[in-house]
Amino acid sequence: MDNLKKYNDVFCRVLNVNESVLNENFTFKAVPQWDSVAHLSLISELEDEFDVLFESDDILHYGSYLNGIEILKRYGVEF
Amino acid sequence: MFLNVDKHNKNKMAIKDDSGYKLTYGDVCLTIEEFDALNLPRSVIFCLCENCAGSLIGYMAFENNKQVPLLLGAGLDEGLRSNLESMYTPSYYWVPERKAEEIKGEKVFSAYGYVLLKTEYEPYPLNDKLSMLLTTSGSTGSPKLVRHKYGNLEANAENVAKVFSWRPDEEVGICDLPMNYTMGLNVINSHLVVGATVLMVKANLMDPDFWEFIKVNGGTSFCGVPFSYEVMRRVGFDKMDLPKLYTLAEGGGKLTDKMFKWIATYAKENGKRFCATFGTSETSARMAFLDPELALQKIGSIGKAIPNGELFLLDEAEGEDGTVTGELGYRGPNVTMGYALNKDDLQKDDEFCGEYHTGDIAKRDADGFYFIIGRKGRFLKLFGLRVSLDETERILKTQYPNVDFCCTGDDKKMNIFITDAGLKDEIIPFISGKTNLHNSAFRVFVIDEIPRNDYGKVKFAELEVLAGK
After folding, report:
1. CATH number of the domain that residue A60 is part of
2. Is A61 within 8 Å of B206 when comparing Cβ atoms?
3. What is the CATH number of the domain that holds B422?
4. Whose CB among A32, B40, B338, B364 lies 3.0–4.6 Å from B351's, allowing a Cys bridge?
């Protein structure tokens, strides 16, 4: 499975959404169910899935679906 | 006035929120008087709460003017809210403006982004002592309410302010916990009663705006549940520059010893203080407090009773080294009157009479410090929120009448046992949506039948084996 598919699956599972809504508008501020509980869950699932350990600053400024991809690229995950 | 708000400096900032509203103590008194001029009858008012100035000022006015608010979260599921409405027939609603369309009612007043709606329900008799209502299990919209009496909130506010030694001129309390949650409400009341400032924050701890807001506004005292501290550890709270933040309090559940030590050590090394506390809705929030000087010596302890309160153990059993174990009980002026299961119960008199048995099993060490070690009742604390297992089963059975359910779990996860494999994938989204609790809090197990003994009682021990304990 390619990394984008894995990344999307984690979002769909944790935030209980359909893959079709994952775009530039899918942000921490705009999605009501993306609260602190969901965010912590998302972070730990992404860490497990991609075998990375996020810096605290990246967790706090994760921000959006798209920005998350940029962050993961910095940790060496290829998209 | 309620919490002596009219005795404080009129020009001093009382409430500030992250939507941009600011109220001095003078503004607070004025708004309470505007509410008073409406001459509302003594009746039940549903407040759909958010952490903002409008939500807070409504509650304060209703307390002051002797209406009886029921504080609910604004995010409460619509079906659960209308169930509560049909049971308790509130004459008014106090709601955020954007919710005014959803709720049928005539708009009679508005302030700071909130509106007062008059419903079609007539007021009905309420006990003279009854001051406020909270749910026992907020996210499941449990119809079982805690009946507060006049003096409960005030006494706990004053005694908690005393034990924390709040400094009225400097203190800026941070209300990050929901105001409809007893511990959040106590953060508010204990700061306002001494004339300090309260920051009402909607942004959550994972949002950079939260940290920016409390830094810019010089927040000095924070209170979190165990989950708040887990989040704070992950976002690198210990590396943030928050020079004004002085008090880190914890309540609403048990921290792991490791986490307790982490916070206590951080506080000690950074010139701050860590205060472990313990409370319940039935005691208008707090009963116990651990002296921050002793945090690293008494790891995991809830400390001793707050001033004017008394902790004791029921059915005591003596252990090693002078320890005693038993169910934790409490006496004090903040003990509420009892529960309500329907609106007739709102006429009931004081049933607790100043004494509450918590259902938590505690150990008292030889020095008199208390430690929570277990629980008697059928409820969990998920993300610091009390969630009734019976109530969750009721919601599931209402939705799926032909399926047998049983719920168990610990303060990390709820285990839901079901007898219909076809439902496996829809249970978690359903119950997560109903309770507003994230789906990571639930696990589903499909089994042939719920194990019961000859009397029909669930054999929980067998379920725990299945859950892999």
Report:
1. 1.10.1200.10
2. no
3. 3.30.300.30
4. B338
Amino acid at B408: T
- pLDDT of B139 > 80? The answer is no
Looking at per-residue confidence, does B194 or B390 come out higher?
B194
pLDDT average, residue stretch B37-58: 98
> If you write DSSP's letter for every residue of B121-160 in order, what string do you get?
PPP----TTEEEEEESSGGGT-S-EEEEETTHHHHHHHHH
H, E, C per residue of B202-234: CCCCCCHHHHHHHHHCCCCEEEECHHHHHHHHH
Spatial CB neighbours of B292, under 8 Å, sequence gap ≥ 6 = B264, B267, B273, B274, B275
For residue B18, give its domain range: 2-373
Domain count, chain B: 2
d(Cα B106, Cα B89) in Å, to the nearest integer?
15
Q: Which residues of B touch A30 (CB under 8 A)?
A: none
Query: Looking at CA atoms only, how far is residue A63 from chain B in angstroms?
Result: 8
The ipTM of this complex is: 0.86
The answer to whether residues B149 and B290 belong to one domain is yes
Nearest to B16 by CA among B205, B150, B172, B211: B172
Instruction: Work out whether strand B130-135 and strand B68-73 pair parallel, antiparallel, or are unpaired.
Output: parallel
* Residue B120 and residue B20 in one domain: yes
What is the number of domains present in chain A? 1
Tally C-beta pairs within 8 A across A and B. 49
Are B340 and B417 in the same domain?
Answer: no
Interface contact flag, A56 B206, Cβ < 8 Å: no
CA-based end-to-end distance of chain B: 52
Residue range of the domain that includes A31? 3-74
Residues of chain B with C-beta less than 8 angstroms from the C-beta of A40: 206, 230-231, 234
Q: Are residues B331 and B421 in the same domain?
A: no
Q: Give B304-353 pLDDT, tens digit per residue.
A: 999 999 999 998 888 888 899 999 999 999 999 999 999 999 999 999 99
How far does A35 lie from chain B, in Å, by closest CA?
A: 7
pLDDT of B172 higher than 60: yes
> Could you tell me if residue A12 is inside a domain?
yes
